[in-house]
């Protein structure tokens, strides 16, 4: 089941113009949104980020069309817990790179099952050769041109790790292939700034604004790889796997000395989901619906 340009479809087959720049050039954006009990979590933040990126890329898509696609697909799915992907392409265009003046974007929403067991896990990381280009606007957007992340993950997996530790061109910590990174040291919760080639993640924003509720002081700070090994804990966050504790980097185990703080941050996320969606999917006896 999916929604394409306002129309809902069963199955998995869509009709797309072969000249769509999303297909030919990766010219588009996407968001991945957690849906719990049929309600999207942090939807406004996802739409704000997509709309801001679209404006910077001169991609003329109406926020109402984005919100409508999410609402229609979530309703058609009949409640439950899902991973919803919202994609926008610039639409068909002539050959060449110049942005067309008469762009007709396509909006596509797809949905897949999500289970609580996917979240709050631990992960291992490996440094990879691919670097994040912090000078590019694309480093702070979720674009359809995602092969750097795909190849970084493949390189890390080939070395036996769960995910990649991606540095920027200056050698500073940027992210993993799919998550923001945080360092816990005492009561300080630090994450690399957007200027270091970082996607402004939705959970990242939640922690920066509400970490005080977990007894922590959150701030942005540039980090080197060595900072990860001297931390009390290293966390990776994204919208579906939520808060993952990093167990090892390059095969070297991390101390993991901040169990109470990690539990408090995970509790903060659980509370935010329950407040927004009406149910904590991690609570004992919780059922999808």
TrEMBL record:
EC code: 2.6.1.42
Catalysed conversion reaction: L-valine + 2-oxoglutarate = 3-methyl-2-oxobutanoate + L-glutamate; L-isoleucine + 2-oxoglutarate = (S)-3-methyl-2-oxopentanoate + L-glutamate; L-leucine + 2-oxoglutarate = 4-methyl-2-oxopentanoate + L-glutamate
UniProt-listed InterPro entries: Aminotrans_IV, Aminotransferase-like, BCAT-like_C, BCAT-like_N, Class-IV_PLP-Dep_Aminotrnsfr
Enzyme class label: transferase
Keywords from the named record: Amino-acid biosynthesis, Aminotransferase, Branched-chain amino acid biosynthesis, Transferase
GO molecular function, one term: branched-chain-amino-acid transaminase activity
GO biological process: branched-chain amino acid biosynthetic process
A GO CC term assigned to this protein in UniProt: cytosol
A Pfam match: Aminotran_4
Pathway participation: Amino-acid biosynthesis; L-leucine biosynthesis; L-leucine from 3-methyl-2-oxobutanoate: step 4/4; Amino-acid biosynthesis; L-valine biosynthesis; L-valine from pyruvate: step 4/4; Amino-acid biosynthesis; L-isoleucine biosynthesis; L-isoleucine from 2-oxobutanoate: step 4/4
Function noted in UniProt: Acts on leucine, isoleucine and valine.
Family of this protein: Belongs to the class-IV pyridoxal-phosphate-dependent aminotransferase family.
Name the UniProt record assigns to this protein: Probable branched-chain-amino-acid aminotransferase
Species assigned in the record: Chelatococcus composti
